[in-house]
Amino acid sequence: MVMEICLEEGFRSAIVDFFIMQLKLASVFFTFQLGTKSHYYGRTILHGGSKYRPTGRGFVVFHAKFAENYIFYSRNHFVKGLDLLLLLIVYNGIYVVYGWLLVVCTVHIQSFMV
Length: 114
Known about the structure:
Blueprint: H1 2-9, H2 11-23, H3 26-47, H4 66-98, H5 100-113
C-alpha cells in the first residue's frame, strides 16, 4: 500500500499516510477483519454454504454497543488469540529447555499437520 501511494502521490505523502494509518490502528482492524472472514469461511467449508437470496430491502446500518460486539466476536476472535498465546508460551518453554532446533522442527512438522 505504501508503494501504491508512493507512486500516486509521492514518497513523503506515502510515509505520512502510513503513520496516520498506524495511529488509527488500521493494522488491528485488518487483523480483526481477516479473523472474521476466516472464521466464517471455515464455518462455510465445514458445515456447507448457502446461496445469497436477495430480498430487495438493501443493507441496514445500525449502531451496536461495545458489549454486544464483544459477546458476538469473543468466541471466534479472542479465544483463538488466547489459544495462540498459550501455544507461544509452550513453545517458549520448549525453547528454553531443548533449544531452538527442536522448536523449529516441531513448528515445521505441525505446519504440515494443519
